[in-house]
Automatic annotation (TrEMBL):
Listed name of the protein: Oligosaccharide biosynthesis protein Alg14 like protein
InterPro entries linked: Oligosacch_biosynth_Alg14
Organism: Vibrio caribbeanicus ATCC BAA-2122
Domain of life from the UniProt record: Bacteria
A single BP term in Gene Ontology: dolichol-linked oligosaccharide biosynthetic process
Length: 150
């Protein structure tokens, strides 16, 4: 992936740990990590770090603010690909990415062992490539399965 730029985005906790493991596989590519921490956690690789606000179903009024933050990041960074492990900020980033015609990949969290997450289902309806880390979930939801991150 010479001369390509990847943008990795995830919520804190397990989503970000999984994303960090994925990002490590692309250490030869220019990359930007996006999450909700004020500063980039030490365990993450990546050339640059950008912050967005966190939100969930409990505070959906923040979605528009995050939408605008994601829009500004994508316009500034011009990535070739957005990769996310979720959750809500990752979904907003792929929505904005699709509007700006950026290729996007959603890697559903390893925690979703029985069914695809709500955000993953929404992403799949938007033409985003969705990957499950569980073979059975992938088969039942007509998704891509390439193994587990952890």
């Amino acid at each position: 992936m010479k001369n390509k730029k990847l943008l990795f985005v995830a919520s804190p906790g397990g989503h970000l740990v999984q994303l960090g493991l994925i990002a490590e596989c692309f250490d030869d590519v220019e990359s930007v990590i996006v999450s909700t921490y004020k500063e980039k956690p030490a365990f993450l690789s990546g050339d640059d770090y950008r912050r967005v606000d966190d939100f969930s179903r409990d505070n959906p009024h923040l979605a528009f603010k995050v939408f605008m933050q994601c829009f500004r990041i994508l316009r500034r960074e011009h990535p070739d690909l957005v990769v996310t492990t979720g959750a809500a900020p990752g979904l907003i980033m792929v929505i904005v990415g699709r509007l700006l015609r950026v290729r996007c990949v959603w890697v559903d969290s390893i925690a979703n062992s029985k069914k695809l997450s709500l955000s993953g289902r929404i992403a799949s309806k938007l033409g985003v490539s969705v990957v499950s880390q569980w073979k059975e979930v992938a088969e039942n939801s007509n998704l891509i399965y390439r193994g587990r991150v952890i």
